[in-house]
Amino acid sequence: MYQIHMNPKVKKYIPLILYALFLLGLSSVPAKKLPQAPQWISDKMVHFALYTGAGIAFYPPFSAPLQSWAATLVMGALDENYQRLTPGRTCDLHDWFADALGGTLGTTLTLLYAKRRHS
Predict the structure, then answer these.
(1) Whole-number pLDDT of residue 1
(2) Are residues 55 and 111 in contact, defined by beta-carbon separation less than 8 angstroms?
(3) 19 burial level (CB within 10 Å; 0-12, 13-18, 19+)
(4) Fewest CB within 10 A of the end CB: N or C in the chain?
(5) Structural contact between residues 110 and 56, judged by C-beta atoms closer than 8 angstroms
(6) What is the DSSP letter of 36?
(7) At what angle do helices 14-27 and 65-82 cross, to 10 degrees?
(8) Is 0.70 topped by the overall pTM?
(9) Which residues, in sequence order, are CB contacts of 39 under 8 Å at separation 6+?
(10) pLDDT score, position 107
(11) What does the DSSP 8-state code read for residue 33?
C-alpha cells in the first residue's frame, strides 16, 4: 500500500481548499435547480451557516485569527461575484454581509476552542 507523505505546511491548507471548492460548487448550481428551503429559513441564514463553516475551515492555515477572518471575507466576495456566472444567480451585498457574519462566528469559535485547548 502506498503512503502519501505531505508537507505539514501544505497539509493544513487542505480543509480550506476543500471547503472553498464546496462553496464554489454550491454557487455553480443554477437557481432553478436549487432545492427549496422551508419558508422559515431565509437564504441569509444559509449563507451565515455556510460561512460559519468557512470560518472554521479557514482557521488552521493562518497564524492569526484576523487573517482567517479576512480569508472568509475574500472568499465570500469571490463567491458572490462568481454567482454572476451561474444562470439565475446574482451577486448580493446582503448575502456577503451574512457570509461575513458567519465567517466571524466560525473564526471566533475556532479561536476560543484553540485557546481553551492550549490552556
Answers:
(1) 63
(2) no
(3) buried
(4) N
(5) yes
(6) P
(7) 20
(8) yes
(9) none
(10) 94
(11) G
Residue 68: what are its φ and ψ, rounded to 5°? -60, -45
The CA-atom distances, in angstroms, between 108 and each of 8, 33, 37, 45 are 24, 33, 27, 18
Q: What is the reported pLDDT for 18?
A: 95
- The three cell numbers of residue 60 are 488552521
| Residue in the block written with cell 492569526 | 64
Question: CA 12 to CA 6: how far, in whole Å?
Answer: 10
Whole-angstrom distance, CA of residue 102 vs CA of residue 104: 5
Enter the C-alpha cell of residue 117.
Answer: 485547548
pLDDT in tens, 53-74: 999 999 988 878 899 999 999 9
Residue 98 has which C-alpha cell? 451574512
Entry field: residues in the chain: 119
Q: For residue 118, which amino acid is it?
A: H
The low-confidence residues of the chain, meaning pLDDT below 50, are none
From CA 72, how far away is CA 77, in angstroms rounded? 9
SS3 per-residue string spanning 14-31 = HHHHHHHHHHHHHHCCCH
